[in-house]
Design a protein that fits this description.
With about 280 residues, the protein is an all-alpha fold. The protein has 2 domains: about 130 residues, no CATH class; about 120 residues, no CATH class. Helices cover about 80% and strands about 5% of the residues. It has 10 helices and 2 strands; from the N terminus they run ααααααβαβααα. It has a two-stranded antiparallel sheet with strand order 1-2. α3 packs antiparallel against α10. It comes from Aeromicrobium alkaliterrae. This is Integral membrane protein. Keywords: Membrane, Transmembrane, Transmembrane helix.
Amino acid sequence: MRGFGAFLAGLFAVVAFAVLLPTAWVTANIADEDGYVDLSRGVLEDAGTRDAVVSAVSDELGGQTRQRLVDLGVPQSLIDQTLAGVEGFVGQGLASEAVVDAWGESQRAAHRDMFRQDGSGFVVELGPLVNAVAVQAGVDLAVPTSFPIEDDSTASRRAVQLIGASPMLAVTAGLVAIVGALSAVLLARSRGAALVWLGLGGLLGVGLSYVGARMASASDVTAGAGAGDQVVSALLDVARESYDGLLGRAALGSAAVLAIGVVVVIVTAVSRRREPIAGP
């Protein structure tokens, strides 16, 4: 009976561990505002995303500048010449430290919009970024406080809702994993065998989490070419790299538990062989 109880406890621990990996990562890197800002800083390193952001910011700067020049009575040909280099200086501005910091503030504002009470979908907030580029270019523009690019689809809303629930799921899964693992070790007839089982289960959980994350991210990627779509795609790439790092560490930890279990089993078997056999 103890062996069966240890098996069930270990099974619960393994399943909970597989759930803990993605929920803990989402809690630390997506649900948490500072974690999301840190994660999103890697987005501008993607060339396609930079181009899309440059285009979106250039449209905002160019639109306002064109209107001002029209109001001043500047000839259309001169306006076109003036605005021809907008994307060029926007691209140069994105390389500055001030604009990179503004990108972080943009994503901080986007994070707050995503988790507001009315349940928004995915949001890319470009207001602070547009303002920083304008400052770098020496242009005085009336940048709107909120300049969002939103994905308000049903899938996006559902993903944001799941992200909001991730902290509670992570805490629950973590408690179940800890209690299950301790129970499995304490109930097992062989502590070494229990550790081997938990180590193998941990490696299996890592593998399932890896496959599940790939399937989930692939199913939600859209083929759009807009700035919002590009940012989402680049953010997914950055998230995959970050999550793969977590899975790598989890795999090493599981392998260590497996190795310790094997050592315990071997030591226990050797010590039993060396015990003197009682005489008749």
